[in-house]
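SAMPLE LOG
Freezer: B-3
Tube label: C17
Construct: single chain, 187 aa
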Amino acid sequence: MLSYNEITGKKTIILDGEPYEVLTSQTVKKQRQKPTNQTKLRNLLTGSVVEKAFHQSDKVYEAEIEKKDIKYLYESKGEFWFSDPINPKDRFSLPNTLVAEQSKYFKENGLVEALVFNENIIGVQIPIKVTLKVVEAPPSIKGNTASGGDKKVVIETGASVTTPLFINVGDEIIVNTETGEYVERAK
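STRUCTURE (predicted):
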């Protein structure tokens, strides 16, 4: 059980029988009133964001979210197919709503983490930084820095990323999966 002041950012709690991730929390004390914890919570099942105030007498359970490795196979008609990394015959699909924006950075036969709550997969998680190969890049023209010195390239997963002019086809780059931005050239 967590008391009202232990409900802080990055924790997962159970509210009305559903798991929520705490996005922000701030303890506020107004004149002659008891302190409250003003929070923003994201429902891990639906993705909706709600604001809730917890008072001193409130207590909530911490959600037990398991993480297990699964292997990404392919995407077909809005469904993403995965398998157990140990037993490839054990295949299953997840809808586009669970995979969301992260699918742009999935490599075929690459491992991702599944978030499991009550034996059901409620989402997937990939590392913040991933290394991907550039498959398409316009040629860099010497002296073409009037537009800021960057260009759009296509990476092996099909997503496009804005990179500096010196990135060419075949280079491996590190991409931030939260922002979709180029970080650096892989060594």
